[in-house]
Amino acid sequence: MTLGIGLLGCGTVGGALVDLVADQAELTIRQVAVRSTTKARSAGIDSSLLTTDAAAVVARDDVDIVVEVIGGIEPARSLITAALKAGKPVVTANKELIANCGAELLDVAEEAGVDLHFEAAVAGAIPIVRALRASLRGEKIRRISGIVNGTTNFILTKMTEEGADYSVALAEAQRLGYAERDPTADVEGFDAGAKAAIMASIAFSANVVAGDVYHEGISGVTASDIEFAQRLGYQIKLLAIAEQFNADGIEGPHSVGVRVHPAMVPNSHPLASVRDSFNAVFVEGMASGELMFYGRGAGGEPTASAVLGDVLDAAAALQQGGHRPTKEGSRLPIMPIDDLPSAFCVNLQVTDEPGVLAQVAGALGTNGVSIRAMEQHDIEDSETARLIFITHAAPERQLRQTLAAFGELPVVQGIDSVLRVLGE
Amino acid sequence: MTLGIGLLGCGTVGGALVDLVADQAELTIRQVAVRSTTKARSAGIDSSLLTTDAAAVVARDDVDIVVEVIGGIEPARSLITAALKAGKPVVTANKELIANCGAELLDVAEEAGVDLHFEAAVAGAIPIVRALRASLRGEKIRRISGIVNGTTNFILTKMTEEGADYSVALAEAQRLGYAERDPTADVEGFDAGAKAAIMASIAFSANVVAGDVYHEGISGVTASDIEFAQRLGYQIKLLAIAEQFNADGIEGPHSVGVRVHPAMVPNSHPLASVRDSFNAVFVEGMASGELMFYGRGAGGEPTASAVLGDVLDAAAALQQGGHRPTKEGSRLPIMPIDDLPSAFCVNLQVTDEPGVLAQVAGALGTNGVSIRAMEQHDIEDSETARLIFITHAAPERQLRQTLAAFGELPVVQGIDSVLRVLGE
Question: What ipTM does this complex have?
């Protein structure tokens, strides 16, 4: 029995998928909806399959599975809704849509008794969505920390390994096609934020949307931040972090924290060695312990490979019957960034005189921030010393208050850098 | 609706599973088959559930899912067969059984229309089995290279980081409970071989059994091998490698190669940074590109976490109907180790005189082995030099013939080490 696919969109991922489906005996592509039927396409695309009428593709009787690789909210959302309501399973690679309307679409799928698959929406070829939805379904997940944007990881790798400035590394990423002409979505953390929202929603059954995610990008990371971090034994990575608080009977309301920001990752941590445009997602489960999933987070073929896995899953479900229900998603409170705990590395210039450390330690103590490690270096031929310390995890608000208190201390001449540190 | 579990075996994994199941509202453990009902057990085990009659547990009307964590071939095989024939899905963590009788048991499951799950049989908490069976179902996989034995990885890490001798590191692993009193199954590669057979069978639909796997352990790895590899920028790891040849229309018969042996892994490779008792599986797919899955490969809780994921999958299938068929497994030819291609690093002592390199290169060329990199060091105050070279991949037979030819050359004073190199 051959199953028919209706393909919505035929860019890099759609084109690669057409090639992969050609090798699968039980699948055939019935029609491909595109914006322009006259645009030049790769050799594998049979031009007689092209149409501009996407709704008609969804509605065809011989289309059993709908694959959406258009991207963006509309018309993808309406087309997917129509497909699900017609009882057709849908496979999408659309992170923006799932991060904003995932709960709504999963409800439609649930009501229709069909599956909505979106493995390719997070971290390309890496099967993190299936791992969270299936393998770790019963696992209490404490935290997910991921390098989920290849563009920024490429830029940070260049800065680290070649000492390049941010602007130089960005220009190279643009030249190589890793970064868009307008790189905002990548470098300011919007893309990683959408993926963090999706992972948090699945892992914590929490219905987190993209707008819930605090994000800071990498445009403020300097070559000297990176050099400084390396000297201390850390790599700077843009991390998407989703955490669950008080999930296990501890006092206080059950809530989640989801954020994207650069962080210092200790060299001994598996995420530290994820280089170039590779992605990796590190999962901390109560019973499973530490897990990491590594691979290509973008690109036509890797993403199409994830889409194909989902299509074959949908095909098996259609042929054998059955639909895997989604875990109930409740709207859990989102912790504001001010309340989210982080460890920080702070690099101060201070007057080199007795009693300085006591004053700095006093400002930390007053604001409830405790120190995990500290070192002081005299700066030659000057009356200035450098004080570097790493804190234990403390709510971001308290760290900000501490920095304000440093500003009031005459002995503190400058705050050279403040970076979050992965750990604890 | 609550589903009943019949648990066969209650050791470390079974005990941890009992605790995890207690948190799952839709699951309950009906009965637990053990060898002795009087042995002391952890607090979570209700002693009234214990019985020595495993067959009766399988047969109970209120047991919907059978979980087997006894290990070994019998009675596990008969019990699982009985459960499947009774239409009950089975979850097992038994690598020995699946590596030897997996195809037979999957046939029984297929005929009965129920699922046999065995995520926990390979690499503990790491969801590699589901990744290969589901996410990568449509992927053409070239090669899988895994660190799938935590004991040997712990020993090699100790040897690397502390310069310890093999016997010292083994003794420490035994003291910490990572290695058994008789460590043969781990250190000689039998355990890793069973896991390699299972992964090859799924990835290549190939029905590979444990006995098909060539294996060399780590007992021959010396502290100086490790030091030498490190100086060249490599880590020595025990790798389980499963490869597919001529799968993509290339000349020659379609076949698979499956083997376990120590290998030099370049520091830049993701497997190089997998330390201590962690496991990781590196997958090279044609479309997906490079993927790696990292985590705890053993231990009660991580393994039980993988069992729980499978149980919840089986529960969803029971509640929603449907059974996922296994890919057809054909008995593909197994490449003998002599024909399997590897790159090698060879460390020779040679006479320090003109023309030596030409003689050594001649022996390589005659046997069809080509050099990728070479370096020569004079050994001070002697007429001896050290010649180190890394070959391109060549069949093992040709490398052996080359080494024999070296033995005939008067200028070759000794072959200090020969190690396989991951790559190409």
Answer: 0.90
For A195-229, the DSSP string reads HHHHHHHHHHT----GGG-EE--STT--HHHHHHH
Whether B308 and A131 lie within 8 Å, measured CB to CB: no
HSE of B2 in the Cβ direction (CA atoms, 13 Å)?
12
Q: Which residue has the tokens 């944007």?
A: A149
Name the class of domain B337-421.
Answer: alpha beta
Q: Taking the alpha carbons of B216, B218, B224, B228 in that order, is the dihedral positive or negative?
A: positive
Considering only A141-155, A365-379, B18-32, B290-304, which range has the smallest mean pLDDT? A365-379
Hey, do A3-124+301-320 and A128-295 end up sharing a CATH topology, with the first three levels equal? no
Q: What is the model's pTM?
A: 0.93
In A194-340, DSSP assigns E strands to 214-215, 234-245, 255-266, 278-285, 289-296
Residues in a beta bridge with A349: A386, A414
> Can you give the residue ranges of every domain in chain A?
3-124+301-320, 128-295, 337-421
Q: B130-296, which class in CATH?
A: alpha beta
* pLDDT tens column, A201-257: 999 988 899 999 999 999 999 999 999 999 999 999 999 999 998 755 445 568 999
Interchain contact, B312 vs A16, CB within 8 Å: no
DSSP for A58-125 reads: HH-TT--EEEE---SSTTHHHHHHHHHHTT--EEE--HHHHHHHHHHHHHHHHHHT--EE-GGGTTTT
Q: How far is B273 from chain A (nearest CA, A)?
A: 7
Please indicate whether residue A95 is annotated as part of the active site.
no
Q: Inter-chain contact B126–A24, Cβ cutoff 8 Å? A: no
B5 in Cβ contact with B67 (< 8 Å)? yes
Q: Do B317 and A316 touch (CB under 8 A)?
A: no
CA angle B101, B107, B112 (to 5 degrees): 130
Q: Which of B88, B95, B158, B195 is catalytic?
A: B195
Cis peptide before B75 (omega within 30 of 0): yes
Distance CA A18, CA A388 (A): 54
Q: Phi/psi of residue B252, each to 5°?
A: 95, 160
Phi, psi (rounded to 5 degrees) for B100: -105, -35
- The answer as to CATH 3.30.2020.30 being correct for domain A3-124+301-320 is no
What is the C-alpha separation between B140 and B259, in angstroms, rounded?
A: 20
Amino acid at A31: Q
The answer on pLDDT for A399 being more than 50 is: yes
- Pair B16, A287: CB distance under 8 Å: yes
Q: What are phi and psi of A326, to 5 degrees?
A: -85, 150
Closest Cβ–Cβ partner in A287, A292, A301 for B294:
A292
Contact by Cβ (8 Å): B292, B282: yes
Give the residue among A280, A36, A176, A313 at the shortest CA–CA distance from B133. A313
User: Across-strand partners of B282?
Assistant: B145, B292
In contact, B257 and B245? CB cutoff 8 Å: yes
Closest CA to A228 of A86, A93, A417: A417
Residue among B302, B258, B305 at smallest CA distance from B278: B302
| Cα separation, A362 vs A406, whole angstroms | 10
**A128-295 fold:** Dihydrodipicolinate Reductase; domain 2 (3.30.360)
Mean per-residue pLDDT, A350-359: 90
Question: Which residues touch B84 (CB under 8 Å, ≥6 apart)?
Answer: B90, B105, B108, B109, B112, B114, B116
